TrEMBL record:
InterPro entries: Phosphate-bind_PstS. The keyword Signal applies. This is Uncharacterized protein. It comes from Deinococcus puniceus. SUPFAM superfamilies: Periplasmic binding protein-like II (SSF53850). Residues 1-18 form the signal peptide. Keywords: Signal.
Length: 336
């Protein structure tokens, strides 16, 4: 009887330990596009406070993390996906076409009226009003603004010194959040850049000229059309990133490639043995990162989120008690 109770006790302990591995918790500005973790929408500063306090496993957002407080440990940030940046405006009755150079001139305040000659050339026959271009920009650091600045610097329209995640040059309105920006859309003549989650139904979204010359919207960035001529999101990556993981890389001049994209980053502490964490949690975090890099979300008005192709996925190197976190080959989401 005693032996039976002891065996039942051991089995009970084993089952309890196997079941007490807590689910992964993420926070930040960008919800995960695959299952495997709970998510809390928080501003970046608040999300990283939660991470450094040991209350979440990682931060998912459009910028890599800032240096952690002294004594916290090393922070690791890796790209796990891409998203389209939408150009949203308020001109009732006008379906707008833009190219990247003209957009950059508008954002920087050098094209100040909607009936400017550059805009008339891109929109023949459109009834462009004599309204001022009123740019609404976000003063807080964000990856949407950084993506727009990167495209303008790459196009030679902005100096490299303007490559910032919170530029306000040329802005008529300076807002702290995307919610406050969206409120500006009630003002005729407003122009702004937004990420997929911030584009609401009924919003006017501009079509951008693709490398092949066609005008396309952010919804073109889906698994069916691929990513085309995406800008390099980090050193060493391919300049062309298709959405489908095994699709051959399309040429840089492919018609239909949406030209304005940002990067989604997953940030976490490199040493995972902190605040009672277990090795299984670190392994689950690696599997989640690989799943994000291989997955995609549904595409709506503002587009969606897509992972990275196999040849552009950096490995996530975490450690637990000083030893690298390893996965079985069968458990790796990126294994062919």
């Amino acid at each position: 009887m005693l032996r039976r109770l002891s065996l039942l006790g051991l089995l009970s302990v084993g089952l309890t330990s196997a079941q007490t591995v807590p689910p992964l918790k993420l926070a930040g500005s960008t919800p995960p596009w695959i299952p495997g973790a709970s998510f809390t929408a928080l501003p970046p500063e608040a999300a990283f406070r939660e991470l450094y306090g040991g209350r979440i496993d990682g931060v998912l957002g459009t910028l890599p993390g800032p240096p952690p407080p002294k004594g916290t440990g090393e922070l690791v940030s890796i790209p796990v996906g891409l998203f389209p940046v939408s150009v949203v405006y308020s001109l009732p009755g006008v379906a707008l076409n833009l190219d990247i150079p003209t957009l950059c001139l508008m954002l920087s305040g050098r094209v100040r009226e909607w009936n400017h000659a550059r805009l008339r050339a891109l929109n023949p026959g459109a009834a462009l009003p004599t309204l001022p271009v009123l740019v609404s920009a976000r003063v807080a650091r964000n990856g949407v603004s950084l993506a727009a600045a990167g495209a303008c610097v790459k196009a030679g329209m902005w100096p490299r010194a303007w490559l910032k995640s919170n530029w306000v040059a040329g802005a008529s309105f300076r807002r702290a959040t995307s919610e406050l920006q969206r409120a500006d859309l009630t003002i005729p003549g407003v122009l702004m850049v937004l990420g997929p989650r911030d584009v609401l139904g009924g919003a006017q979204v501009a079509q951008l000229r693709s490398p092949g010359g066609a005008f396309v919207g952010p919804e073109a960035l889906t698994l069916e059309t691929g990513l085309g001529n995406a800008p390099t999101p980090y050193p060493g990556a391919s300049p062309s990133l298709p959405a489908a993981p095994f699709r051959p890389l399309p040429p840089a001049t492919e018609v239909g490639a949406y030209p304005l994209r940002g990067v989604v980053w997953l940030s976490m502490l490199k040493e995972q043995a902190y605040r009672g964490r277990r090795a299984a949690q670190a392994q689950a975090l690696v599997r989640l990162a690989e799943g994000l890099q291989a997955g995609a979300s549904a595409s709506g008005l503002g587009g969606g989120f897509v992972g990275l192709p196999l040849n552009a996925r950096p490995a996530l190197r975490l450690s637990f008690q000083g030893k690298r976190v390893e996965l079985d080959a069968s458990a790796s989401a990126s294994s062919p």
